[in-house]
Every structure is written in C-alpha cells, then in structure tokens.
Design brief:
This protein is α+β, with helices and mostly antiparallel strands. The protein is built from 11 helices and 33 strands. Strand 31 and strand 32 form a beta hairpin.
Length: 612
C-alpha cells in the first residue's frame, strides 16, 4: 500500500496484518487470536471462528494476548496463547487457547476460561460465522443437542428470529463432493441471521438469548468450549487463486430510476450547514431529512432552525419525528403540527416512529408498552393531512423485520442500517455490503411495491438499540457500536458509500440517505480534525456523484468480483450513461473497463471513479 493511511482510513492507526495459517488445502487467517476467512482450496468454508466476550451493552472486549506461540509445519499448524479481559470494578476473565489445523481437513479451536472474580457478561463463548455467498437458501444438516439429526435449509429471505436452535453440529456442502461439519461442544448453541444487521453471515453463538442476560461467570469456575471443523470428500481440491486477475465490468438493461439522495440534518448542525450553504447547494441533494426528537428536548426552536435551512435550499423536506407516545396521541402530534406551522417550516413529508421502537426487543424479551401503530399513524395523518406520511423504524432493518409495520396506512416505509453492530474491522465493515441486497429483497417481500426509503445509514452508529448508549470514540479507533468512526473521514467511506448505493439500486428505492451534511456524520471536516474545518471529506465526492445520478434510469451492472469492485450506472433520457466504480479493498486493483470504452484501469485503494 502506497497511499497514506490517514487519507484512506481517517487515522494513522492501521490494522495488524493477519497471520496466514495453512495445512494442506486448509487455510485460515489468525487475527487478534481468532480465525477468519477459513478456506478449503479457493472456497470460503467459514467466515470466522472467534471466542467473544461481550459487556453489558453488547460491546465487545478486546482481550490482551500473551504467550502467543505459532508452530507452522508442512502438514499443519498449532497456535496457543493466553488472554484476559478486564471488566468494570476490576473484575477479570483469563482464558487459555489452543488452535490446531491438519492437512486432512480437520481444525479445532479450544478455550478454557477462568474468572478470577465474578465476571458479568452478556455473552462469553464462541461465535461461528457461515458466509452467505453460495449458502443463503441452501441445504444444511443439523444435529441437535439430543442427538436428533435434521435436514433443513438456511433462510433465503432474512429470518427475524433464530432459524436454528439447540445446536450441536451444522454440516453443509462446500462444493460438489466435499462437505464441512462444524461441531460445537461445551454449551448449547443457536443461530441468528446476521443479515438483519447487514452482517454478511449466519452467526452461530453460545448461550441461547432466551436465557437471562447479563449473567455472571462465578469466580474460580472454569468454562471450556471447543469447536471442531471437519472437511471431507473425494472431489479434487481446486487451487486457491490470487486476487490478481483484472475485474471485468459489464452493463445490462435499464431498470427503475435511481433514488433521490438525502442528507440528514440535526438541529445542532443547522448553523454549520447555513454557514456552508454554497457547498450544500453545490452538493445538490434532492431531500433534506430533518431530525426532530421531543424526548431529547427538541421544540419549536429546533423547527425554526430547520425552517431557516429549508427556506435557503431548494430541496424536498421530510421531518423525521420521534413520537414519545406518553399520552394522548392526537394531542402530541397536533402539538408538533402547531409548532411546524409556528416555525414556518415547509414540509413535503413526515416520518413518525414511537420512541420505544428505537430500542431492540431481542428474542425472549418482553415487548415494551407502545400504542398500536395503527393508532400512531392515524393520529399523524390527522395532524398532517396534506403531506405524505412515512413510518417504519428509525433504527435498523432488524427492528422492522421483527415488528412489521402496517404499511397499508403509510405512503412510504423506512429503516436504517449500520455496519458496526457486531464488528468494526475494515474487512467486516466492507463485507456488510454483501448483505444489503438480501435486506432490500426481504423488505420487498414484506411490503411489496410500497415506496421504500433507507437511511440515514452511516458507518458510525447514531443510536444503540442494543444497549444503554453508543460507544464514545474520542481517540478515533475502530470500535463496534461507536458514535464516531475515523473511516468516515477517509477514502474508505467514499468507497463504502458507492458500494452501498450500488448494492441497493436494484430495489428501486424512493430515497437513500448515507450522511448528514455537517457534524460527525457529515461531509465537511469538523473543528479539531487535521483537515481544515469546513473542507470536504472524501465522502463529499461520493455523495455528490449519487446526487448527480438521482432520477436517472438504473442500468444493471455487475463486476466479475464484487468483493473487490462495485459498479453503479445510470442512464439519462438522452441515452448518456454514467458509471461510478469503487475499489472496495486496501490494495491496487486492475479493472477491465473495455465494456465502458475505457480499456484497463488501475484503481488505488478505496478509490472511486466516474466514467461518462
């Protein structure tokens, strides 16, 4: 990599390079003591095999490793280490690990954990990730803890709950003639469909969610778990291929129009937006999504601020209005309507959602008190009879999939996504793009042709439905559930954004929002950052490109390796075709763009490029 790390990631801190382990056709990458990208030949068998310790807000501990020893032989490998986690009030958990891989296709990952004091956790144990590419909707054989063996399928459309429970082993076909059995010992496991959170995996994890959490690991009581992977079959093993062949771009037929592009505006960011109005006007968003939350003190002054911006910029406006649902719904929403009129705020639409629906209700938990959504929407319609009404979830697709709104009462449905719910490394964040077509297809299966909006979806998490709060990240690290993410300031975010838009384009969205204009989720550098305050972040160019494409006919496009390069194309009424490409990797990538009349290109890490 020749590019400056800060330009790419918004931080000079780089991730440690994975240690490649190999045993015959079996390969894996060792990252922070866990395994990822476990392959047999060129086929990814498991996306990850990791021992994970979660805190009371579902945040993930970063264990400190010690005594790491790696023995790599011609016919196999052995890894051992000790690790420790320090919890609140000085509580600690120490675990010892052994990982062994063999050329016959067997792999074991064994951990014994020992709390030296009572240790509170939401989860402590293994997570195994099966990839979705090539597996979604496909057959698997499941062995339950009672020994019963069942043939079933992994879900194709995203399952809102756990598709598989009470697990001891899962077997799937790697390729014709080769199968992989993943056997889990030491506790009861179950599977959730992580595509709900835009993770590109099915996750099998320890301790059923129906059991109470957080729970306490008693001091001095050891806990051992072991995962065993066995790959067997007679088929010839194809050689692993290097990612060096040029990525080919192909275009297909024109389809639905590309969506309006919105930017979300928070009341506290209005003044910065007005101070940089020429940049906002030059960006050209079709929509302003104006956030309003009475439960956090927003009132008529917040709406007056929004009104100043809506008056200064020619764009459609939607009020994202949190509903407290603390009393009479008609009185509450009529009060909002009166404040909107009093503020002089021009609105084209309003989206409403109960405040409690921003908090997730996991399996086995009691649903919080909330008025029927039919009543919420009816009150909103009475308060705002002359504009479009939307609803859904201001959190993530997970919550919308689990609490499916009565869309027949709405003019559009909306939800967000966030790639930092479970992991924050560069590869996992970029791989989250793979799950987006499953999210949009599942939404269409639920809500049909109802106008459909997504966003605001950003790398950083604006709210945490799974804990008390998002994680503060003043040091600019790669942290799951963080309210700021350094990559938002780098070229990484630009590539992720083009990739996101490319993945959801076939769904025919009405509106897509992937940033705010100012603030930590915004397009301009903030005070205290190395870049000059108010200067455009690399993300600005990506959002500007999407704004320019809005309303054009989406031209189907594919690349020969969608894990490396994304392509998004639009065609105007005059027949002009514009294509945006994004390198989704941290390496230079050769691109065969001859189908676009461009010959061969070399795209630098996380670069985006416009053709046409």
């Amino acid at each position: 990599m020749t590019a400056d790390a800060f330009d790419l990631y918004g931080t000079r801190a780089t991730e440690a390079a994975p240690i490649r382990l190999h045993a015959g056709a079996l390969t894996a990458e060792l990252v922070n003591g866990n395994l990822r990208t476990i392959r047999h030949g060129s086929t990814e068998v498991l996306r990850a095999m990791a021992y994970v310790v979660r805190d009371g807000d579902w945040g993930t501990y970063e264990p400190a490793l010690a005594d790491l020893a790696i023995d790599q032989r011609d016919d196999g490998f052995r890894v051992s280490y000790a690790a420790s986690c320090v919890g609140p009030n000085g509580s600690s958990l120490v675990f010892r690990t052994t990982i062994e891989g063999f050329a016959d296709g067997n792999l074991s990952f064994d951990v014994t954990a020992l709390p030296d004091s009572d240790f509170e956790t939401n989860r402590c144990g293994f997570c195994i990730l099966h990839p979705i590419a090539g597996l979604a909707g496909n057959p698997v054989t499941v062995e339950h803890t009672d020994g019963n063996v069942v043939d079933t399928r992994l879900p194709d459309l995203i399952d809102p709950w756990q598709p598989l429970k009470d697990l001891r082993a899962i077997t799937h076909e790697v390729r014709p003639g080769v199968v992989a059995e993943c056997r889990m010992e030491g506790d009861t496991f179950e599977m959730e469909d992580q595509r709900n959170w835009s993770d590109a995996s099915y996750k099998t994890y320890v301790r059923p969610l129906a059991l109470p959490w957080p729970y306490v690991l008693p001091a001095g009581e050891p806990m051992r778990q072991t995962i065993r992977l066995r790959i067997a079959g007679e088929a010839k093993t194809p050689a692993a291929t290097a990612d060096c062949a040029p990525v080919r771009i192909e275009l297909g037929e024109a389809g639905p129009r590309l969506p309006d592009i919105g930017v979300i505006i928070y009341p506290e960011d209005v003044e910065a937006s007005l101070a940089n109005l020429p940049d906002l006007a030059g960006l050209g968003p079709q929509q302003l999504l104006l956030h309003f939350d009475p439960t956090r003190g927003h009132g008529i002054e917040a709406l007056r601020a929004h009104a100043r911006l809506a008056t200064a910029l020619r764009a459609a406006t939607t009020l994202e209005s949190v509903v407290a649902c603390s009393g009479d719904l008609d009185a509450e929403l009529s009060d909002v309507a009166d404040m909107v009129r009093g503020a002089g705020l021009r609105l084209d639409a309003i989206a409403v959602s109960p405040s409690v629906d921003r908090q997730s209700t996991p399996p086995g938990s009691a649903w919080p008190a909330c008025p029927p959504l039919e009543d919420v929407y009816a009150a909103a319609r009475r308060a705002f009879p002359d504009i479009r009404l939307g609803g859904g979830m201001f959190s993530y697709f997970t919550e919308l999939n689990r609490k499916r709104v009565p869309a027949g009462l709405l003019d559009f449905v909306t939800h967000c996504t966030c790639p930092l719910v479970h992991a924050a490394d560069d590869l996992s964040v970029m791989q989250s793009l793979e799950a987006l077509p499953f999210i949009t297809r599942s939404s269409r299966a639920i809500f049909g042709a109802k106008p459909y909006r997504i966003g605001p979806s950003t790398i950083a998490m604006r709210q945490n439905p799974y804990g008390g709060a998002t994680k503060d990240n003043a040091q600019g690290q790669r942290i799951a559930m963080a309210n700021r993410d350094p990559r938002h300031n780098g070229q990484f975010a630009a590539a992720w954004t083009i990739g996101y838009a490319a993945r959801v384009a076939p769904a025919g969205l009405e509106m897509l929002t992937l940033s705010s204009f100012a603030g930590p989720f915004g397009l301009l550098a903030a005070s205290g950052e190395p870049a000059a305050e108010g200067s455009p972040r690399p993300l600005f160019q990506a959002i500007k490109g999407l704004c320019d494409l809005a309303g054009l006919a989406h031209v189907s496009s594919r690349t020969s390796d969608e894990t490396r390069v994304a392509a998004l194309a639009g065609r105007s009424g005059s027949g002009e075709t514009i294509v945006w490409l994004a390198n989704l990797t941290g390496d230079d990538v050769q691109v065969d763009a001859s189908a676009l009349g461009q010959g061969h290109l070399v795209m630098s890490p996380y670069a985006i490029a416009r053709i046409g």
